[in-house]
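Hello forum,

I keep getting stuck at the same step: I have a sequence, I want structure tokens, and every attempt I make locally crashes halfway through. Rather than fight my setup again tonight, could one of you with a working pipeline run this one for me? It's a single chain of 140 residues.
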Amino acid sequence: MVRRDREGFWDGFKSKVKSKHLKTITMNHLEGTAWLKIHDGKKAEFKKIFAQCVETIKANDPGTLRYDFFYNPDETVCVVKEKYADSAALFAHLGNLGPLLGQVLAVADMDLELYGNPSPELRAALAGANPKIYSFQGGL
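Reply #2:
Ran it on my machine without issues. Output:
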């Protein structure tokens, strides 16, 4: 924690900060978080299928800008942080994963959050997955 009175730090810092002009920010890319709850006894199978997914994405998804995954301590939940150049890139990603995604969903339950402004076509394609969609409002 920074204390304002500590050796004049805060006052010195304030004097160096310049005001920023507000500007209109747009967001063309999409970000997502997939929460995958791995079924009991299916951890090894999930990891094998998921490794295939990662290799497929590396080889075929130039519009996938981020695909990082994390496990909780007992490896029963995998969280995937994703970023796509645009709605077309996410469509391509889904097409490239094809049957692998079905295999993942056979051994894990998925909750999906999507951040940004997906195209109407992408919204329709994802409707069956019932994603929580958070529309972009602004940022830096």
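The longest helix spans residues 87-107. If your local run keeps crashing, start a new thread with the error log.
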